């Protein structure tokens, strides 16, 4: 049986790796978030509540790899 201490170190290590990856590649967070809010281009390209079209366009321009269809 795997020692509980070793198992806890493995879990802690995995959590640290996941947090580092999400910190270094924040686009992953946006891609996951946008993929769950709607699959159509209209849903993704329309600004969320509380943001103007100009603010949303500025936000999308910072992430051209995610919002390329909206910026065409």
Characterise this structure.
The structure is a single chain. Helices cover 64% and strands 0% of the residues. The chain has four helices and no strands. The chain is rod-shaped and about 55 Å long. It has helices spanning 4-24, 27-37, 41-45, 53-61. The protein has one domain. The protein has 72 residues and is an all-alpha fold. It starts with a helix and ends in an 11-residue tail after the last helix. The model has no long low-confidence stretch (mean pLDDT 79).
Number of domains: 1
Q: In one word, what is the shape?
A: rod-shaped
Mean pLDDT, as a whole number?
Answer: 79
Provide the structure class.
mainly alpha
- What percent of residues are in strands? under 5%
Radius of gyration: 18 Å
Largest sheet: none
Unreliably modeled segments = none
- SSE order, one letter for each helix or strand: HHHH
- Terminal-residue CA separation: 56 Å
- Number of DSSP helices? 4
Helix content bin: 55-70%
- Tell me how many strands there are: 0
Sum up the structure in keywords.
72 residues, single chain
Itemize the secondary structure elements and their pairings:
Elements: H1 4-24, H2 27-37, H3 41-45, H4 53-61
Explain briefly what this protein structure is.
Helices cover 64% and strands 0% of the residues.
């Amino acid at each position: 049986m795997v020692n509980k201490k070793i198992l806890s170190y493995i879990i802690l290590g995995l959590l640290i790796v996941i947090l580092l990856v999400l910190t270094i590649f924040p686009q992953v967070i946006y891609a996951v978030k946008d993929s769950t809010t709607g699959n159509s281009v209209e849903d993704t390209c329309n600004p969320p509540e509380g943001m103007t079209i100009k603010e949303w366009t500025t936000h999308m321009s910072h992430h051209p790899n995610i919002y390329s269809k909206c910026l065409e």
